[in-house]
Amino acid sequence: MFSRKSSKFLVYFAILISVGTLGFYFIGGDEWSLIDSFYMTIITMTTVGFGEVHPLSDLGRLWTSFVIVFGVSGFLYMLSEIGAELVEFRVYKENKKKRKIRKMKNHYIICGYGRMGAVIAKELHDKGYPFVVVELDQDKVDKISALGYQSILGDATIEKTLEEAGIHEAAGIVVCLNNDPDNLFVTLTARSLNHDAFLVSRCSQINNKPKLKQAGADKVVNPYTAGGHRMAELLISPELEDTVSLSLSQDIVDLAIDEVNLANLNSFHGVKIKDSKIREEFNLIIVGLVNGDGSYEINPDPELQLSADHTVMIMGQKGQLQQFKDKFPSHA
Fold first, then answer.
1. Quick check: 166 and 102 in contact, CB under 8 A?
2. Who is most buried in 199, 238, 285, 301, counting CB within 10 A?
3. In sequence order, which residues have a C-beta less than 8 Å from that of residue 199 and are 6 or more positions away?
4. Domains in the chain: ranges and CATH
């Protein structure tokens, strides 16, 4: 279906071709057929330079100039109008996207789509949480749109951009720009616009953490410190499945999760979880259990009876987990 402008261009060129064809037909004389005249009009309008179909008189050359001027100028004007319509269409799509974002509530805002921002966006998308990415780079915004994520093209340090991302209705905000000054400024601005949202900020220099906290960040993450801590834990205890560090007001608590196969731990065979004394003696928790057929249970029933086919997932502080392994070394 053509727009009004497209219809006008079709009518314009139809009239120009008709008038040009009739002009060549009457000016050319007896040797010019309608086909010759039509063909001459087309090659003249398109300026392909095939030459004259038949020799032209001075009047014929003037008519050719007339067709070239109106044909080429009309074609160029059409191209400019098509370009304007494409721009208008892009603006329309952008405004439609912004209207959709403004209607979002209890969503998350990701400021910056670098390596960390991309990981956060994927996690939120995979878990089905609504979110908006604010990014200044057009190429990155195109990639974000291709992935089906909602995005705003703009500078996160500008208050209006955050408002377009629906910051007043956001449940959480993560600030992960490339440098700490920008992160600090966005954190301060975001907190002033939304006092209730949970705000997480990235910092590159650990000494900037207190500043980001004072600016309003609920949590501050240094990816280098977190990554280094994680790698060191795995290096020291490669047998651990995972480690978690809890930053409390007074101290940092390191928790670990390990798999324990009960095949060689005869003392647990036929014993109910609540009677295993794992919690009482070691202050460890059985958070999961894998059956012999590969099925699993999260937070298994305390009445469940353990067997040689079971593999249990045990969580607790690393020191207490080590005590358990020292007492039952055969599990490895």
1. yes
2. 199
3. 172, 173, 174, 175, 187, 190, 191, 216, 217, 218, 219
4. 4-99 (1.10.287.70), 104-221 (3.40.50.720), 239-331 (3.30.70.1450)
Instruction: Give the amino acid at 5.
Output: K
How many helices (H) and strands (E) the chain has is answered by 11, 11
Distance CA 253, CA 14 (A): 80
Angle (deg, nearest 10), helices 58-102 and 34-45: 60
Q: Is the pLDDT of residue 169 over 80?
A: yes
Residue of higher predicted confidence among 146 and 77: 146
- Which of 316, 237, 224 has the alpha carbon at shortest distance from 279? 316
0.90 exceeded by the pTM? Answer: no
Residue 294, helix vs strand vs coil:
coil
Percentage of residues of the chain with pLDDT beyond 70: 89
- Three-state secondary structure call for residue 102: helix
Structure tokens at 223: 């990816």
CB atoms within 10 A of CB 24: 27
Task: Give residue-wise pLDDT tens across range 82-117.
Answer: 777 777 777 777 777 777 888 889 999 999 999 999
